[in-house]
Amino acid sequence: MGEEQEKQVENKPERDEHGHLLPGNTANPAGRPKKNKAWKDILDELLGASEVKLFLTVGKDEKAEKKEIILSIGEEKTIRHALTVRQIQLALSGDMDAIKDLMNRDIGMPKQAIDHTSQGERIDLSSKSTEELIEILKLSHSMKNGN
User: Fold this and answer.
1) How big is the chain by its Cα radius of gyration, in Å?
2) pTM of the prediction?
3) How far apart are CA 48 and CA 38, in angstroms?
């Protein structure tokens, strides 16, 4: 028996006659592999920092030079704070996109009315029977799917 096969036999968890793991045994002793951080976690971490080191490559080929840039906001402030201040500065200077973005984040996006009727005409469904409503739904579904 080879060394690798001996390891597999040695690491095999104990099972009963039905193949079920016995108490205290696991088929995966190392556990589930750790996941990479989600984008939101990385963004929260960076935006919550007061200092971030960036490494940039400037130039191409042999002339390429790596530069370290340290973005420091201060002990009491975070990058999130600095970006918010910058967004407010842009809004105050008249940047409409910045104004809209700040308002949307502050009071929320405005409600958007969507016309689900035909050409702006209101359809009263209260007088329709169940069978008629089912036919309307079928027709709507077939139109949506291009049938």
Assistant:
1) 31
2) 0.42
3) 15
The two three-digit tokens of residue 83, written as one number: 């970006």
Q: What is the dihedral of CA 46, 50, 53, 59, to 10 degrees?
A: 90
Q: 146: which 2 tokens?
A: 């291009």
Structural domain boundaries of the chain? 48-107
Return the closest-CA partner of residue 89 out of 98, 81, 97.
98
Which residues share a beta bridge with 71? 52
Give start and end residues of each alpha helix (H) in the chain: 3-11, 39-47, 79-92, 96-107, 130-144
pLDDT in tens, the chain (147 residues): 555 555 545 668 888 888 888 888 888 877 888 877 787 888 788 878 888 887 888 888 778 888 888 878 777 788 888 888 888 899 999 999 999 998 888 888 877 777 666 676 777 788 888 888 888 888 877 776 665
